[in-house]
Amino acid sequence: EAQVTQNPRYLITVTGKKLTVTCSQNMNHEYMSWYRQDPGLGLRQIYYSMNVEVTDKGDVPEGYKVSRKEKRNFPLILESPSPNQTSLYFCASSRQATSVSYEQYFGPGTRLTVT
Amino acid sequence: AQSVAQPEDQVNVAEGNPLTVKCTYSVSGNPYLFWYVQYPNRGLQFLLKYITGDNLVKGSYGFEAEFNKSQTSFHLKKPSALVSDSALYFCAVRGNNNNDMRFGAGTRLTVKP
User: Fold this and answer.
1) Residue A3 CB contacts under 8 Å (≥ 6 apart), including other chains
2) Pairing between β-strand A110-114 and β-strand A10-13 as defined by DSSP bridges
3) What DSSP designation does B4 have?
4) Each residue's pLDDT tens digit, A13-66
5) How many CB pairs under 8 A join A and B?
6) From A40, A90, A101, residue closest to B32, measured CB to CB
7) pLDDT per residue as tens digits for the range B79-108
8) Whole-angstrom Cα distance, residue B65 to residue B78?
9) What Rg, from alpha-carbon coordinates, does chain A have?
10) What is the DSSP string of A29-79?
């Protein structure tokens, strides 16, 4: 089954404790992206990747890191989480990075709480 | 940079009535417009998109959307709403020179029996 998977689905952590949220897709998609969803703000893009070893900042990259060492994986790293990073996070992928016409496929989401 | 506005936080309709969820956009160059739906505790699912061609686009679950270039709008419509259509709907836009996608704040649709 074609899908985007994220782990963990739920995470409660404390301020300053480094964490990684994994994202993997099995569709051989070039483009991958991370979003955060906050009430009243919709989805805001954190980082995106056009292909392996090619990443770029989205609208709200502060406090986050990403890497794209393999085509299928795009982990999101919070080096020192803070309470304002409490949010619902989505990973997404789409088929071809150089074409803007392809829709994105979304993972199920990771609900992160930082206390 | 491109942007999207969904002017209504909430839309309520009765089952069987037509529904409209509004979206306006701003982008330089040609717009690539998308609608996604989010059911509770789920990720976003693609509904339909406008890339080029006919202004009326048909998508999943009986939804359609009308692209209006002069009004920079891309409203989502369905002739007869179902209770199961109740969800959060997002409009998104991507410019042809941009690699990022901008989403609206979302509109919560409630269809009452």
Assistant:
1) A25, A26, A27, A105, A107
2) parallel
3) E
4) 999 999 999 999 999 999 999 999 998 888 999 999 989 999 999 889 999 999
5) 59
6) A101
7) 999 999 999 999 999 876 666 788 999 999
8) 8
9) 13
10) -SEEEEEEEETTTEEEEEEEEEETTEEEE-S--TT-EE--SSSSB--EEES
Apex A109 CA angle, A106 and A115, nearest 5: 150
Fill in the amino acid letter for A99.
S
CA angle B57, B60, B63 (to 5 degrees): 55
Residues 6+ apart with CB under 8 A from B26: B2, B3, B4, B72
Residues present in chain A in total: 115
Residue A82 burial by Cβ neighbours in a 10 Å radius (0-12, 13-18, 19+): exposed
Identify the contact set of chain A against chain B, taking CB-CB distances under 8 A. Answer: 4, 31, 33, 35, 40-45, 48, 50, 56, 58-59, 90, 92, 97, 100-101, 103-109
Contact predicate A59/A35, CB 8 Å: no
